[in-house]
Design a protein that fits this description.
It is built from three helices and no strands. Helices cover 68% and strands 0% of the residues. It is elongated, with a radius of gyration of 14 Å. It has 85 residues and is mainly α. The chain starts with a helix and ends in a 14-residue tail after the last helix. α1 runs antiparallel to α3.
């Protein structure tokens, strides 16, 4: 398997999880302010706060994967396709 196939699978899987947890948190990924507010404010219930923490971790992982892709000469796809933004 080439590196590109590996990166494509990894980022697709990660993006799927990010979209899921963004939906759980009620965050529109096209609006940076919503994301920042969600990640900054602790939620009252354990379940909501766990979703927030998971979303935060997934976004960090995506940044790391993007950095690795760039390091190997690949261009990471946008998390939000241009037509959805």
């Amino acid at each position: 398997m080439s590196g590109l196939e590996h990166f494509d699978q990894e980022i697709a899987s990660l993006d799927h999880e990010i979209r899921h947890y963004a939906a759980v948190c009620g965050v529109n990924l096209a609006h940076r302010g919503e994301i920042e507010a969600c990640l900054r404010i602790r939620h009252d219930s354990w379940a909501a706060d766990k979703a927030r923490e998971t979303l935060n971790g997934l976004l960090i992982l995506r940044i790391k994967l993007e950095s690795e892709m760039i390091e190997f000469g690949f261009t990471p796809p946008p998390l939000i396709p241009p037509e959805a933004a």
